[in-house]
Design goal:
CATH class of the largest domain in chain A: Alpha Beta
Oligomer: homodimer
Number of helices of chain A: 14
CATH superfamily of the largest domain in chain A: Bira Bifunctional Protein, Domain 2
Largest sheet of chain A: 11 strands, mixed
Shape of chain A: globular
Low-confidence stretches of chain A: none
Radius of gyration of chain A: 26 Å
Strand order of the largest sheet of chain A: 3-9-10-16-13-12-11-24-27-23-22
Helix content of chain A: 25-40%
Structural class of chain A: alpha+beta
Mean pLDDT of chain A: 96
Largest interface: A-B, 65 and 65 residues
Strand content of chain A: 25-35%
CATH architecture of the largest domain in chain A: 2-Layer Sandwich
CATH topology of the largest domain in chain A: BirA Bifunctional Protein, domain 2
Amino acid sequence: MAKNLTKRDEDYSKWYNELVIKADLAENSAVRGCMVIKPYGYAIWERIQAELDRMFKETGHQNAYFPLFVPKSLFEAEEKNAEGFAKECAVVTHYRLQNDPDNKGKLRVDPNAKLEEELVVRPTSEAIIWNTFKGWIQSYRDLPLLINQWANVVRWEMRTRLFLRTAEFLWQEGHTAHATKKEAIAEAEQMLEVYADFAERYMAIPVVKGLKTESERFAGALETYCIEALMQDGKALQAGTSHFLGQNFAKAFDVKFAAKDGKLDHVWATSWGVSTRLMGALIMTHSDDNGLVLPPNLAPDQVVIVPIYRGEEQLEEISVVANELMKSLRAKGIRVKYDNRDTHKPGWKFNEYELKGVPVRIAIGPKDLEKGTVEIARRDTFEKQFISREDVVETVVGLMDEIQEKLFNKAKDYRTENTTEVASYDEFKEVLETKGGFILAHWDGTIETEDKIKNETKATIRCIPLDVKEGEGTCMVTGKPSKSLVLFAKAY
Amino acid sequence: MAKNLTKRDEDYSKWYNELVIKADLAENSAVRGCMVIKPYGYAIWERIQAELDRMFKETGHQNAYFPLFVPKSLFEAEEKNAEGFAKECAVVTHYRLQNDPDNKGKLRVDPNAKLEEELVVRPTSEAIIWNTFKGWIQSYRDLPLLINQWANVVRWEMRTRLFLRTAEFLWQEGHTAHATKKEAIAEAEQMLEVYADFAERYMAIPVVKGLKTESERFAGALETYCIEALMQDGKALQAGTSHFLGQNFAKAFDVKFAAKDGKLDHVWATSWGVSTRLMGALIMTHSDDNGLVLPPNLAPDQVVIVPIYRGEEQLEEISVVANELMKSLRAKGIRVKYDNRDTHKPGWKFNEYELKGVPVRIAIGPKDLEKGTVEIARRDTFEKQFISREDVVETVVGLMDEIQEKLFNKAKDYRTENTTEVASYDEFKEVLETKGGFILAHWDGTIETEDKIKNETKATIRCIPLDVKEGEGTCMVTGKPSKSLVLFAKAY
């Protein structure tokens, strides 16, 4: 079972990079910082999309599509947002290429095709969307306006890593408008719940729900809610954010509505998003030294059937059983694949599906035909068992729930073991150095202290947890009063 | 039923533009030539995507995602392709904005953040994808490689129209690699069949399958297959294309495979795509002076139930019936919506759903409660009938097929009436002037004659139909020999 994969405890970062490539999830492209999402990786993303899209629609949201480009003058309208993203914007300045007169067969940018106004490739779509909402909102009848977009965005990152930080990434961005502040906050909180529910029930990733500190907020937001997950190397990963934007964008783009009594007021806004970064969280939460481990709820193939045979005749006999089994499993809603390729040997296939994290593997050989059995192997525990053919469907259906639950509980136990409450800054530094993980500590609420901790330890406040046990205390650094424990970690 | 919609026979083009806006399908954005696809328009696009995606997967294709940007040096590698798209490329030249020192609160492009190599925003993805395929293909075992991508692309168009021609549009692009020329041609032809099947069975649009002439081919293709549809104003619309690319891209990007005997050869390629342009075809094929008409197979809402009531109590009684009806219809797979908003009157709702092309409207009023009936109205024929509650489900299910078929037959009859075979160039010009539509005529196969006809009449050869009755003849313009009739029309 070598697969030449670096072991996690040797070099976690290298293990991750190799796994993403070897499991055919993604690869770097010829474009600096932009990835190619390979078919297997994209199939997992499609599963993520399908479930989230359903959850968004069930909570009343509709999809729409807005332009890729944002004219510079719109982009700069909400100043804080513009300032936050200005340094990582790809900018279109020309709209035509021409033959290069100095270089036969080559092209160059046509200097006569310069745009009057530059176009920013969207790093996020608040500006273009709020400029559009202006035309969609006149009265309270038009509210709430609950819109989502599935799109690509570009943020020019200097140091990139597949899925975790790429110049172009895929995401969804929700943008909503409400008549009252209360409704907008309720919406931001609802979407945080949707994200947390999705992360836990589908991705099998336990998350901490919380609020970002002022310095970690989305540029232009009044509050940023987030879900934070803990990876196997003790580092945190922000898995989704939901922003209460107040009236900032409504004011920047002059979006007002007439209330029932005719009074005009600016609307209240939220935005929220998750991205292909979730793929990184999924990989780093469950996988092992043998490759990817996928929770059944998101696995493109939940079960793979591999025939073990010599000669065409044996393959045909096994295929009869396999096809029947596939039919029965599909009738139960199981995603199953039969790999009867004669270009690869069973051992190669076993390795391949282990590397790709298929939750359950069924092998059928000539002896199984005689005995009326099949061999079932679990990817998460490597347990194998021979079971009788008539029990396969029931067993597999049961395993789907069992594996899903086990992965979640394992990740949750890991998080519990790796969450430490500390009383002093010395203890904080020691835990961070020796154990890592989430650290709960008291903080005085100032940016200065937050910066000092970040500069001295590289740990940041991941969030102020929503459900932390109440309780005032004193800041571990300054000794000043603290309202509650906050969650620190080094982070991706 | 005024709706203030311009009538088709007054000004077809104006009717189209108004309909797209008033039916909430799309609108122009602040970005020149880029549209906003509104929720209702996007919901139709999602239906199109869902069915096509299923058909692609059923024919063995997998989705993947490739970068938005193409480095200029890759873009220019396949010269014909580059030449064909160079004049409409949006180009990213910088990766950062900064505060404008001359203009407080404004941003400008940071002159120090110029890219070493410019990035083209993909107008199509052959270049970036074939550069990637180079790493994916080593031997015959890796073939065929059957990939599809759902993405946005940008082609800088000077004259744009919503859905029909926009600077940014959404599409899918299939890209495949094969061991032999024969297999690649079979793939291109298979995907043409998939497109034709989809157009006819889902969009209810009859299409002519054919080959493009050399001058109308995709830049870099050896053959371009297409489906052509006829709009209500007698103009043609190209609804989908499938290209046999030969070894052009394999050679430009040096993609070779080892055959079973070890011999190295360049692979053979296809690409194929349909876009949000299909929305334009859908609108212009079926809609009328009252608004959009949607075929049931693509309607986001196939049925809408509108309560007619006075007071809360009556609404509650009607809602009991409506909710039960919805449940029964949904159990049969019907997409149904209950519009119980108290912010709008029934008459307003009737108009709204007529404008939006919902195939069947069900109205329930107090008299219906007494009699145990509902009123059913068809969008396509405006026929209304009262039917007993226990017959509703069966009637509606039947109507779905009936309306779907009727729309297709109506469009097909229109096309038959508006396809004219002509023997002389004078007759050609007269038919084009007075009747429009598809014109079948003999052509000598030269670009010169094709250009002459285009310059003199604005009609182009839409395709050389695949299933036209065989038969040689003489070119209507030059009198030279012609192998078969070809299809002319003015086109979108």
